[in-house]
């Protein structure tokens, strides 16, 4: 749980603690945008957001941020779609779903994990968008949720709601330790293996730097999963890339939850 500290005020009128929380929220939100499917306008939207945030990234992640920004600027929207499909969609090489990864510590299996993740979302009034539904353990959803918690904590701190701030800080720490922080290591290992040189490998480098710095800042040490689940039964979340022909003679996957 985050303890109150002596505050100083920055040039824009925010306390250092509020500025740190809002900066963290913005970084996690950008990461969610980067790993989302690059639909029309996404390339430009991400570039615009990068421009807005370039002066706010902490020193520890600036190198990875600038490397990624150069690759993203150089990539065409068509190339981004191809790479996203190749890596993450259809017969995905790299799963962006938490429950695709695990080890002996995952005793309850996928249903229990999904229920626990959804419980975090419900506790803070968050639900999956009806216009673009996905499984609750998708990387983008988890990143957006952590970003939302940072905003909620900043608002509680600004309003001097000590109890609400403590509850939100505790929840975000548990979510980072018990969920998001556990599966990124094997996911990033697969991304580097299958996406070396890809702009999405650069997104992975930034993701790793940001999450590691957040864990360091909060003195959180997640216990990472050992790797992908041997028999991945997460076929219900399978998304067919719009650029690829569907495989013949295979049944339609069930719909999203």
Q: Number of helical segments? A: 8
Structural class: mainly alpha
**Intertermini distance:** 33 Å
Please provide the ordered H/E string of secondary-structure elements: HHHHEHHHHE
* CATH homologous superfamily identity: TorD-like
Describe the strand arrangement of the main beta sheet, using strand numbers.
Answer: 1-2
Name the average pLDDT. 83
Poorly predicted spans: 1-11, 232-240, 242-257
CATH structural architecture? Orthogonal Bundle
- In percent terms, what proportion of residues is strand? under 5%
Offer a concise description of the structure.
This protein is mainly alpha-helical. The protein has helices at 16-35, 42-53, 59-74, 77-88, 110-123, 139-158, 162-194, 199-218; strands at 101-102, 227-228.
Characterise this structure.
This protein is mainly α and 257 residues long. The protein is globular and about 45 Å long. Helices cover 57% and strands 2% of the residues. It has a single domain, classed as Orthogonal Bundle (TorD-like), CATH 1.10.3480.
Secondary-structure map with pairings?
Layout: H1 16-35, H2 42-53, H3 59-74, H4 77-88, E1 101-102, H5 110-123, H6 139-158, H7 162-194, H8 199-218, E2 227-228
Antiparallel strand pairs: 1-2
Helix pairs in contact: 1-2, 1-6, 1-8, 3-8, 6-7, 7-8
